[in-house]
Amino acid sequence: MEKRGLLVISHGSREHGWIALVDETIEAVRSQLGTELVVEAVFLELVDGRLIQDGINRLLAEGVTEALVLPLFVSSGSTHVDEIGWALGVYPEARTATELEPFELGGLCINYGQPMGEAAEIDSIVLDRLMRLSEEPSEEQVLLIGHGSEEAGFRESWERELSGIAERVRVRAGFHAASIALLLPSQVAERIDTIRRDRPDLRILAVGLFLSEGYFTKTVIPRHLASSGGLEVCRYDGAALMPHPQVAAWVVRQAREWLEIRERGLEREVGN
């Protein structure tokens, strides 16, 4: 008899608070899924005893035969999503250099999911955060800030997905304009300079699209804003996607959609 599991992978951090937000989210996922799936939360690096191979081993020890592996990352432009997929045997080769070694699956059948990307849940999170910063949307410019990548193909995915989010929240809330900026390559100062030159009358609402609060939200983004004088003209919330409940809602939706597909597949196999 098949037993199914869910392996949620995020990057990892040395900061306890970063990890705690992930754990809080995954506990909400477990609560909503109940006994539908065996759920494990693991990290790409930096968290001893909770790395990807550790999670695979725990699923196998629980008797899990098939698992959805869900990369809890912001964008498909993350090179980590690609290298993890390669190490899991999903992709024939990694598109960038990686220090990962292929994981030992021990017969575990896996289905590799997609990161949050342009999911409806991420739109809701961003909109909630913007509305807490906003006074009059028609007089404001949205600036979404993402990690980004210097790698060809990955950068374009970051830009496409963030641009889609920015435009949708602009339309929904009636903001005057919306744009994006990546940290890699460094675009924040250029974007702020352009906004200040073209529309100095607009308030800039800056929101970082990072999974959990930590070094990037507390140090890197403020530093980029300060280098362009952006701290004086931007309202920046310093928050992250978690602990918003829509992150857990996204994980649960992915899991249940996968379960439904698997159940339908079994029905077809049984009923021919």
Automatic annotation (TrEMBL):
Determine the domain of life of the protein's source.
Bacteria
Which keywords does UniProt give here?
Lyase, Metal-binding
Pfam families per record: CbiX
Q: Where is the signal peptide?
A: none
Which Gene Ontology molecular function entries are recorded, alphabetically?
lyase activity; metal ion binding
Q: Please name the InterPro entries in this protein's record.
A: CbiX-like, Sirohydro_Cobaltochel/CbiX
What name has this protein been given in UniProt?
Sirohydrochlorin ferrochelatase
